[in-house]
Amino acid sequence: MIYVTKPFLPPKEEYLKYIDGIWNRNWLTNNGPLVNELELKLKDYLGVPHLLFLNNGTIALQIAIKALGLRGTLITTPFTYIATTSSIVWEGCKPQFVDIDSLSLNIDPLKIEAAITGETCAIMATHVYGNPCDIEAIETIANRHKIPVIYDAAHCFGTKYNGKSVFNYGTISTTSFHSTKLFHTVEGGAVFTKDSELSTRMEFMRNFGHNGPVDFAEVGINGKNSEFHAAMGLANFKYISSLLASRKEQSARYDKWLNSVHTQRLKISEKTEFNYAYYPLILENETMTLKVIKGLESSNISPRRYFNPSLNTVALYKSAALPVSESVSKRIICLPLYYSLSLEEIDLISRVILRAITS
Ligand SMILES: *Cc1c(COP(=O)(O)O)cnc(C)c1O
Q1: In 3D, which of 157, 204, 197, 195 has the Cα closest to residue 31?
Q2: Contact 129, 105 (CB under 8 A)
Q3: Which of ligand 1's atoms lies nearest the C-alpha of 58?
Q4: Global pTM?
Q5: 317 alpha carbon to ligand 1 midpoint, in Å?
Q6: Which fold has domain 241-358?
Q7: Fold observed for domain 12-237
Q8: Which of 142, 146, 157, 315 is most buried, taking the most CB atoms under 10 A from its CB?
Q9: pLDDT tens by residue, 221-243
């Protein structure tokens, strides 16, 4: 069986070396030395002023909303993972979906402007598949209306925009280090901001609000991550450039076979250095998409309808129709893409797709 993704695992000895250290110190969590080391290494690698390592990417979104004190409506995208939307609702705010741009598949800035009302307190946008939004356009709108921007950059490890990590943009940017993401710590996530006051507030928030053993600066939650998770991050850190390079090579291999069958390609701005985190295939219509999925499944290959459904059609969050997002979600699949996927497996997958399309 070929799955859509398979977590990367470093050589076991390299992970165990870090685990030995944990045994020696008997320090398992609460801002331990491995968490500190990972934070410093990532900050340096990504070139970001503030980074807080958290227990997952969903808590990262929730802490971002909380730290900005948001109340009211957040303008957001329906073409993302459910955690973007559910975090907004979990924090007592309201999501207002705005349709996506048909070429980048990111939230359409022109439609953001039109959707802003007196209730709008922020914009929460996802850089879908690791492809940055139109950051300048969104920033202009946010500045004009004096509202903050949170970027869900869960797919963006390794993506650069204007020569720097895309985590540098937005009032707050968040990411996920879940096992299925390009760089992972088993479970994990982070928040990034240029604002040191905001960073300090989020640092309190991830640790129950503690400002000393008996003093509390904020209402907090348990957003910390452990030494074991940091150990996985440190063991994986060494492989970042191989992880990025293999994704690029694998994507080029898919392209060689499939260039003729994509009805369109993800539009990636020239300002972007892409991380090839996902390989989306956009087909002509849903019938063709289901036919391709059936063909893959009968060859024991499991693609994923990522993202489907468009979140404005989910009963819990149901709202007005958004034609672009709804149309794309019915026609898009993400093909298997992970470190140990061989070029021969990509050839096999591609041949199955071509056969399904032409049959
Ligand atoms: C993975 C993901 C999340 C959630 O991250 P977790 O670490 O799994 O909590 C949020 N948003 C998007 C777009 C994601 O892909």
Answers
A1: 204
A2: yes
A3: 9
A4: 0.98
A5: 18
A6: Aspartate Aminotransferase, domain 1 (3.90.1150)
A7: Aspartate Aminotransferase; domain 2 (3.40.640)
A8: 157
A9: 999 999 999 999 999 999 999 99
